[in-house]
C-alpha cells in the first residue's frame, strides 16, 4: 500500500516538499538579514535532486542552487539579497524548489517560498502593534453600533386617567335624562341635559387630544427615518 502511494505521487508529481522557513523577510537597515538560509528536508527512503528557481534572479544570489539530498537528511540553501534599494520595498518575490529522483528529470514535487524586502524591522513591529491596537477598537465600535438602541420618538397610547375619563363620559351619556319616567335606572342616576353636554364636551376633547398625539408621533417618526 505504501509502495503504491509512493508510485502514485512520483507519477503525478504531487510529492510533498518540506522546506523551512516558508517565507523570507529581508530588512534594508539590518545587514544581517540580507543573507538567509532555506532548509530542505528529505524524509523519504530515496535520494532527491533539487533545483532552486526565482521570479527575479537578478536580485538574489543563491548558493548551491542545485544539488542532492540523501534519504532522511537535509540540506541548507543560502540566499543573499544583493539589490537592497527602496524601490524594492514591499515587493513580493518567489522562490520555487523543485525536487526529482536521481535517475529522472521530471519534477516530482515543488514548493514556493515568498521573499519580501522591508525598510526596517522596527517599522514593521510598529505597524503590527498599531494593527493589533486598532483591531479590538474596531470590533468594539462595531459591537456598540450594532446594539445601539434607536433614539426615536414613538407615540404612546392614552394614559390611564384619559381612559378612565373617557369611560366615565361614555357612561354618563348612556344614562337616562331627567324626566325619563320609563327608565329602570334609579332616579339619582338620571342626568340633566347640561350634565350630558359637559360629558360630551369632555369626551370630544379627549378624542381630539388622542388623535393629535398619534399624528404628532407619526410625523416625528417619519422625519427621523
TrEMBL record:
TM annotation in the entry: 157-175, 187-208
Superkingdom of source: Eukaryota
Subcellular location: Endoplasmic reticulum membrane; Golgi apparatus membrane
Keyword terms: Endoplasmic reticulum, Golgi apparatus, Membrane, Transmembrane, Transmembrane helix
Membrane topology listed for this record: Multi-pass membrane protein
MSP domain sequence ranges: 17-112
GO CC annotation, single: endoplasmic reticulum membrane
Pfam families linked: Motile_Sperm
Main subcellular localisation: endoplasmic reticulum
Function field: Plays a role in differentiation and/or proliferation of mesenchymal stem cells. Proposed to be involved in epithelial-to-mesenchymal transition (EMT). However, another study suggests that it is not required for EMT or stem cell self-renewal and acts during later stages of differentiation.
Protein name per Swiss-Prot or TrEMBL: Motile sperm domain-containing protein 1
Record organism: Myotis brandtii (Brandt's bat)
Taxon lineage: Eukaryota, Metazoa, Chordata, Craniata, Vertebrata
Amino acid at each position: 500500500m505504501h509502495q503504491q502511494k509512493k508510485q502514485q505521487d512520483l507519477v503525478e508529481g504531487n510529492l510533498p516538499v518540506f522546506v523551512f522557513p516558508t517565507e523570507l523577510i529581508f530588512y534594508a537597515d539590518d545587514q544581517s538579514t540580507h543573507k538567509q538560509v532555506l532548509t530542505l528536508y528529505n524524509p523519504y527512503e530515496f535520494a532527491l535532486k533539487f533545483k532552486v528557481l526565482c521570479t527575479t534572479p537578478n536580485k538574489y544570489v543563491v548558493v548551491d542552487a542545485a544539488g542532492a539530498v540523501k534519504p532522511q537528511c537535509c540540506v541548507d540553501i543560502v540566499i543573499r539579497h544583493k539589490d537592497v534599494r527602496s524601490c524594492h520595498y514591499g515587493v513580493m518575490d518567489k522562490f520555487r524548489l523543485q525536487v526529482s529522483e536521481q535517475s529522472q528529470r521530471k519534477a516530482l514535487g515543488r514548493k514556493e517560498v515568498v521573499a519580501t524586502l522591508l525598510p526596517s524591522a522596527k517599522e514593521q513591529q510598529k505597524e503590527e502593534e498599531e494593527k493589533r491596537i486598532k483591531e479590538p477598537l474596531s470590533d468594539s465600535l462595531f459591537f456598540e453600533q450594532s446594539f445601539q438602541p434607536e433614539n426615536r420618538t414613538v407615540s404612546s397610547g392614552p394614559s390611564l386617567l384619559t381612559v378612565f375619563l373617557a369611560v366615565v363620559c361614555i357612561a354618563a351619556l348612556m344614562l337616562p335624562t331627567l324626566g325619563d319616567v320609563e327608565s329602570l335606572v334609579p332616579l339619582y342616576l338620571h342626568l340633566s341635559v347640561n350634565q350630558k353636554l359637559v360629558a360630551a364636551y369632555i369626551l370630544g376633547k379627549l378624542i381630539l387630544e388622542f388623535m393629535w398625539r398619534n399624528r404628532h408621533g407619526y410625523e416625528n417618526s417619519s422625519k427621523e427615518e
